[in-house]
Automatic annotation (TrEMBL):
Source species, domain of life: Eukaryota
Listed GO biological process terms: double-strand break repair involved in meiotic recombination; nucleotide-excision repair
Matches recorded under SMART domains: DEXDc2
InterPro entries in UniProt: DinG/Rad3-like, Helic_SF1/SF2_ATP-bd_DinG/Rad3, Helicase-like_DEXD_c2, P-loop_NTPase, RAD3-like_helicase_DEAD
Residue ranges occupied by any Helicase ATP-binding domain in the UniProt entry: 1-232
Span list, region Disordered: 1-27
Pfam families: DEAD_2
GO molecular function: ATP binding; DNA binding; DNA helicase activity; hydrolase activity, acting on acid anhydrides, in phosphorus-containing anhydrides
Keyword set, alphabetical order: ATP-binding, Hydrolase, Nucleotide-binding
Protein name per UniProt: FANCJ protein
């Protein structure tokens, strides 16, 4: 029956009760923000997850966003050096008649974490743990980490995943209404500069100038290519 200490005893509802009732009637759930924890390096993420594992919050759903350099387990792509991203995309698009069997096994890692959580065996993990499990299950750790973000309460990632709008878009990170923690935030200035900076070699500039010379000399969009050639020459 109704209690005697609050408004429900008199059959009246407070504004808060009414809004909650409306949410239930509409089938809506109250919004619970995620915690995005940004660090300067991947090594710092390892240190933080190790400390998290020692606390009572070790069983909280989490994930770690990282680059293919740290998470790719494909035997060819992972040893390819600087063009891992391009090779991965080619495999996903099925170019040259090949595909990535590890990508198609992502669900194995997701199901493993769900099973651990259901049996209350879930504990905070590190990138190395996920990669090791991915190799055992023949499942892609890179895309599994992204999939786990949907149900995660805590998302660990390097600064640039939060600062760089292009990375945020590609990783489908929406920070509106979320909690953002920046570890050692005095490093943010350098990270922000790096995210909008780009390095080119002298040989790349010479190659670009030669291509622009060809465009201009053959009357191909001279208005566009002329100023670009001038920039290359001045550099």
């Amino acid at each position: 029956g109704p209690c005697t200490e609050c408004s429900c005893s008199s059959g009246k509802e407070t504004d808060k009760d009414t809004s909650n009732t409306k949410k239930k009637e509409n089938g809506d759930r109250s919004f619970i923000p995620k915690i995005f924890f940004g660090t300067r390096t991947h090594k710092q993420i390892s240190q933080i997850t190790r400390e998290l594992k020692r606390t009572v919050h070790s069983s909280v759903p989490m994930t770690i966003l990282s680059s293919r350099d740290y998470t790719c387990i494909h035997p060819v792509v992972s040893t390819s050096g600087s063009n891992r991203n391009e090779m991965c995309v080619e495999l996903l698009e099925g170019k040259h008649g090949k595909s990535c069997l590890y990508y198609h096994g992502v669900h194995k890692l997701i199901e493993h974490h769900a099973l651990q959580s259901a049996h209350r065996m879930y504990q905070a993990w590190d990138i190395e743990d996920l990669v090791s499990l991915g190799k055992k299950l023949r499942a892609c750790a890179y895309f599994a980490a992204r999939e786990l973000m949907v149900g995660a309460d805590i998302v660990f990632c390097p600064y640039n995943y939060l600062l760089d709008p292009q990375i945020r878009e590609s990783m489908e990170i929406n920070l509106k209404g979320q909690v953002v923690i920046l570890d050692e935030a005095h490093n943010i200035e350098d990270s922000a500069r790096e995210s909008v900076s780009y390095s080119v070699t002298e040989s790349q500039l010479r190659a670009a100038r030669e291509e622009l010379d060809f465009m201009v000399n053959n009357n191909i969009r001279q208005k566009d290519h002329g100023p670009l050639r001038a920039v290359c020459c001045s550099l």
